[in-house]
């Protein structure tokens, strides 16, 4: 009888293990057209907590400890669905079909010219006025030994925002017990198309609302970057970062050169550029950010060829959330991606996705501390 009870307990244990991965789900309200939006809260064994919205797949909150164990929310976000429906800073959003800019909203593919609605001066930005950040995604959750998973799905229909092909997109957010937030992207299409997916979370490792990010230190593993013209479209050149304010190959304070007398910095009002990451085509650490006062560290691991480092240059106090007013340079973004305007630059890594092919990519945000 005793052995039978032990066997019964052992048989039940896996059920309790799975139950430990339960994910909280709550309503976040409705969109203007009546679609209900949900928030999912993922938690791990070390007190890290991530909140994700089905509207735009937005990362709404990431709570992590500092070097003394104090928990703080380190991402910028709005409080209401209605704020996300307006044109804005893309807080935490999944961006696509084409993250970043396409010059004049125009590209050619298979001998045909396509036009994306303009929403950034003369250019299309992040997939047009109603890109993936403005869509309600289908969601379901799961859990296993690897962590808690939130699975998001969206079907972008042929012709949506001018892009060809019915595109099925699956994005899985995984929170692990290593204090990692992993984002895994998968996509398929029934017509040749272009694709560039990324996440647009704004980080402040002091804690959101705790001032600007200029004293953070950053390392970007890149020897080159893509300079831009007056409308923030790449010129096609790939100059070396050495000897410029864009050299972050060693940990350097973000604010050290951000106000230098440099034409590229003047155009973007700070950093809003794509870095050409070293060792393309494999998973590797590409960025490290250290906040000296809290000891919080953010490492970025990805298989993507580029990362857009953006220093919140266009935040101006009009965006408010979580009891905070977000001013210029109160957050930074690290958008792992292919290069901006790649469809119009044949020498850049291709962003074409052929019918029947499967796109897949992974980016990991790892949070640690140091004294």
Question: Which architecture does the CATH hierarchy give at level 2?
Answer: Distorted Sandwich
| Total separate domains | 1
* Dominant shape: globular
The first-level CATH class name: Mainly Beta
Helix content: under 10%
Structural class: mainly beta
- Average pLDDT, all residues: 94
> Total strand count, please?
29
Number of helices: 3
SS strand fraction: 35-45%
CATH topology descriptor? Beta-galactosidase, Chain A, domain 5
Major sheet strand order? 11-12-13-14-29-23-22-18-20
The oligomeric state of the chains shown is single chain
What is the rounded Rg?
21 Å
Low-confidence segments: 1-19
Q: Can you describe this structure?
A:
The chain is mainly beta and 371 residues long. It has a single domain, classed as Beta-galactosidase, Chain A, domain 5, CATH 2.70.98.10. The protein has 3 helices and 29 strands. The protein has helices spanning 2-19, 81-85, 263-268, and strands at 24-30, 36-43, 49-53, 59-65, 71-73, 93-95, 101-102, 106-109, 112-115, 124-125, 138-144, 147-156, 167-175, 180-189, 193-194, 198-200, 202-203, 217-220, 222-226, 252-253, 272-277, 284-290, 296-302, 306-310, 319-321, 324-326, 332-337, 352-353, 358-369. It has a 9-stranded antiparallel sheet with strand order 11-12-13-14-29-23-22-18-20. A 5-stranded antiparallel sheet has the order 1-2-3-4-5, with no helix packed on it. The model is unreliable at 1-19 (pLDDT under 50).
